[in-house]
């Protein structure tokens, strides 16, 4: 066996899989190269909470043996991946970035995990995240923040910040994130990656530790649109274990990623997602990308979605309400932390002490806020009203999609901010989700694709499509990526500083 | 509309979550700010708008009521904070004086 090429960690997932399929690279070599890269850079980046080197190499060796035996392998066979620590995987701890689950080994695989294994993806380990996926910076992890590979003093986005940093730091070509209000797209935007929140119901939530059940959705992070499509196709599809999983065919995302044309497509620019609060560099890259799509033959239409202005407040009532209910399962009785069980204290007291010791500040804030919004006397005014606003936002989308094929906006109002800059200001932190939340509330799919740099930091371009038309994201995103790469002369991540 | 420190303490009790004095002091003003921000939803005229709980229309999903393989007792108890005689061992749930 020859040594793997030195740049193997810079291969895309598609290139890695093709090299392995052709016998030019073994799965063990690809996995070892990724593990070596993790060993080299992850002390600085802190993308991983757990690295399962032995398990990954065993999986890789099995793939190589099956290839040698002439067996048919999956389309992502031997490709290393970072799995957000909110999805269960047997043989590895699942912490959700929380003390309350420290050391918990789940007894079953999430459906996403099972599908990754079935596709012969090599799971390197578990990626850091904001505690229970609540946050936009990964600073809310109980195990310390993750750093942005573009600038180690800045946040990698959140809550899937370990996933984004792992891919942007070339520790893995692929990662799985989850997106409740932007937690895949915002980290992708601020680290120069492609990130997709699939249509709600498109990817099973079985084994995804629930934060806000009506909004949570797992999806891919990758360095290219094609890689994201390959991962999307591998994890999507109906699952009887999730009653909110929808039994429809997986949209043709891989084919759409290869199409590279937008001639005649109608692209709607959302008027409400621009203006005050958007950094000039972010707005400039967005405007340039829209102009480029117009040059390529797309018809650009300005669209108004008036209720998007109320998406953020509606979200910060609905998500905490569902969170306060979902996190009731952490009761210190059957799994996870149990604190203060001194033989004297009753179950309720032990529960209260455990939740005080096990949850961090942001989780406590949201549990209290949700409990408030759901309590009698406030339910109609807050939670009930937010659900009505949710209907109006869905209607805005429906009206817009009668006129256009996709909607576009910046993914985030700003580039990555310094670690600590917003830690004590929850409302400033929540504003990161301004552009991403409407898609979660309406359940529609959305992608962030790199649009370039502003003062040396990545800017994301968001594309939103009707439910189960996820393929349109890949068609527009793939076209924009190809045009921007051609203009620049290289992929955006080639501009990232060496670690 | 202001939320008081006492109300936060009450909500924490409802949530089965002890909070220290320092946490209560920090949380009350923060929650007040957050509630003032989210109260913007009340500006929307929506009296005749139906609520949405899920973005995708859902119906009940049923399966045949047949026995299927499940976790073994050992697997189910493997992560338990305390176990005894093939069962979860929990702190007392009744007051000894009652």
TrEMBL record, chain A:
Q: Which Gene3D superfamilies match?
A: Amidase signature (AS) domain (3.90.1300.10)
Protein name listed in UniProt: Glutamyl-tRNA(Gln) amidotransferase subunit A
Pfam families attached to this UniProt entry: Amidase
Q: Which organism is it from?
A: Pseudofrankia asymbiotica
Name the gene for this chain.
gatA
Which InterPro entries does this one have? Amidase (IPR000120), Amidase_CS (IPR020556), Amidase_dom (IPR023631), AS_sf (IPR036928), GatA (IPR004412)
Question: PANTHER family this protein is in?
Answer: GLUTAMYL-TRNA(GLN) AMIDOTRANSFERASE SUBUNIT A, TRANSAMIDASE
Enzyme class, spelled out: ligase
What does the UniProt record say this protein does? Answer: Allows the formation of correctly charged Gln-tRNA(Gln) through the transamidation of misacylated Glu-tRNA(Gln) in organisms which lack glutaminyl-tRNA synthetase. The reaction takes place in the presence of glutamine and ATP through an activated gamma-phospho-Glu-tRNA(Gln).
TrEMBL record, chain B:
Q: Does the keyword Transferase apply?
A: yes
Kindly state which reaction or reactions the protein catalyses: L-aspartyl-tRNA(Asn) + L-glutamine + ATP + H2O = L-asparaginyl-tRNA(Asn) + L-glutamate + ADP + phosphate + 2 H(+); L-glutamyl-tRNA(Gln) + L-glutamine + ATP + H2O = L-glutaminyl-tRNA(Gln) + L-glutamate + ADP + phosphate + H(+)
| Entry's Gene Ontology BP terms | glutaminyl-tRNAGln biosynthesis via transamidation; regulation of translational fidelity; translation
Phosphoprotein as a keyword of this entry, yes or no, is: no
Keywords of the record, alphabetical order, are:
ATP-binding, Ligase, Nucleotide-binding, Protein biosynthesis, Transferase
What Gene Ontology terms describe what this protein does at the molecular function level?
asparaginyl-tRNA synthase (glutamine-hydrolyzing) activity; ATP binding; glutaminyl-tRNA synthase (glutamine-hydrolyzing) activity; transferase activity
Question: Which EC numbers characterise this protein's activity in its record?
Answer: 6.3.5.-
Q: Which Pfam families match?
A: GatC (PF02686)
Q: Which PANTHER family match?
A: GLUTAMYL-TRNA(GLN) AMIDOTRANSFERASE SUBUNIT C, MITOCHONDRIAL (PTHR15004)
Family in the record: Belongs to the GatC family.
Q: Tell me the function of this protein.
A: Allows the formation of correctly charged Asn-tRNA(Asn) or Gln-tRNA(Gln) through the transamidation of misacylated Asp-tRNA(Asn) or Glu-tRNA(Gln) in organisms which lack either or both of asparaginyl-tRNA or glutaminyl-tRNA synthetases. The reaction takes place in the presence of glutamine and ATP through an activated phospho-Asp-tRNA(Asn) or phospho-Glu-tRNA(Gln).
How this chain assembles, per its entry, is:
Heterotrimer of A, B and C subunits.
UniProt protein name: Aspartyl/glutamyl-tRNA(Asn/Gln) amidotransferase subunit C
Q: Which organism is it from?
A: Pseudofrankia asymbiotica
């Amino acid at each position: 066996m020859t040594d793997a090429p030195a740049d193997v960690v810079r291969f895309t997932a598609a290139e890695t899989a093709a090299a392995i399929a052709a016998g030019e690279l073994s799965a063990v070599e690809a996995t070892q190269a990724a593990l070596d890269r993790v060993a080299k850079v992850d002390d600085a980046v802190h993308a991983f909470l757990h690295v399962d080197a032995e398990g990954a190499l065993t999986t890789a060796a099995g793939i190589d043996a099956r290839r040698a035996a002439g067996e048919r392998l999956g389309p992502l066979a031997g490709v290393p991946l970072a799995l957000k620590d909110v999805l269960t995987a047997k043989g590895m701890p699942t912490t959700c970035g929380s003390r309350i689950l420290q050391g918990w080994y789940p007894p079953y695989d999430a459906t996403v995990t099972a599908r990754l294994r079935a596709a012969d993806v090599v799971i390197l380990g578990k990626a850091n995240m904001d505690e229970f996926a609540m946050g936009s910076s990964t600073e809310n992890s109980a195990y310390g923040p993750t750093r942005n590979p573009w600038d180690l003093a800045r946040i990698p986005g959140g809550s899937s910040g370990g996933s984004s940093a792992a891919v942007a730091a070339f520790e893995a070509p692929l990662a799985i994130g989850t997106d409740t209000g932007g937690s895949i797209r915002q980290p992708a935007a601020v680290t120069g990656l492609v990130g997709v929140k699939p249509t709600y119901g498109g990817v099973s939530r079985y084994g995804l530790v629930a934060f806000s059940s009506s909004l949570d959705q797992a999806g891919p992070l990758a360095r290219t649109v094609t890689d994201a499509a390959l991962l999307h196709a591998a994890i999507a599809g109906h699952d009887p274990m999730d009653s909110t999983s929808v039994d429809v065919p997986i949209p043709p995302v891989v084919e759409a990623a290869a199409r590279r044309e937008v001639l005649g497509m109608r692209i709607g620019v959302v008027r409400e997602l621009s203006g005050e609060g958007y950094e000039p560099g972010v707005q400039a890259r967005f405007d340039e990308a829209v102009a480029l799509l117009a040059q390529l033959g797309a018809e650009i239409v300005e669209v108004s979605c008036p209720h998007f202005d109320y998406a953020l407040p509606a979200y910060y009532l609905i998500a905490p309400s569902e969170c306060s209910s979902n996190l009731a399962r952490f009761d210190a009785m059957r799994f996870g932390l149990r604190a203060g069980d001194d033989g004297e204290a009753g179950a309720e007291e032990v529960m209260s002490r455990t939740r005080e010791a096990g949850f961090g500040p942001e989780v406590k804030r949201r549990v209290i806020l949700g409990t408030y919004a759901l309590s009698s006397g406030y339910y109609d005014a807050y939670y009930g009203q937010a659900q009505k606003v949710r209907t109006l936002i869905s209607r805005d989308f429906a009206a817009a999609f009668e006129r256009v094929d996709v909607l576009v906006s910046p993914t985030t109002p700003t580039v990555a901010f310094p670690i600590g800059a917003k830690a004590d200001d929850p409302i400033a932190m929540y504003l990161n989700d301004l552009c991403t939340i409407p898609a979660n509330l309406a359940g529609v799919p959305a992608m962030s694709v790199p649009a370039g740099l502003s003062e040396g930091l990545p800017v994301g371009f968001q594309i939103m499509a009707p439910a189960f038309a996820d393929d349109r994201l890949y068609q527009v995103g793939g076209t924009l990526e190809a045009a921007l790469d051609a203009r620049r002369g290289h992929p955006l991540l080639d501009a990232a500083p060496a670690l | 509309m202001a939320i008081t420190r006492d109300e936060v303490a009450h909500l924490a009790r409802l949530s089965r979550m002890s909070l220290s004095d320092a946490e209560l002091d920090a949380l009350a003003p923060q929650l007040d700010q957050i509630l003032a921000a989210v109260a913007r939803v009340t500006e929307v005229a929506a009296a005749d708008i139906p609520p949405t709980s899920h973005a995708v229309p859902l119906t009940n999903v049923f399966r045949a009521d047949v026995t299927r393989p499940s976790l073994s007792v050992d697997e189910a108890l493997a992560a338990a904070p305390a176990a005894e005689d093939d069962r979860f061992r929990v702190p007392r749930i009744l007051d000894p004086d009652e």
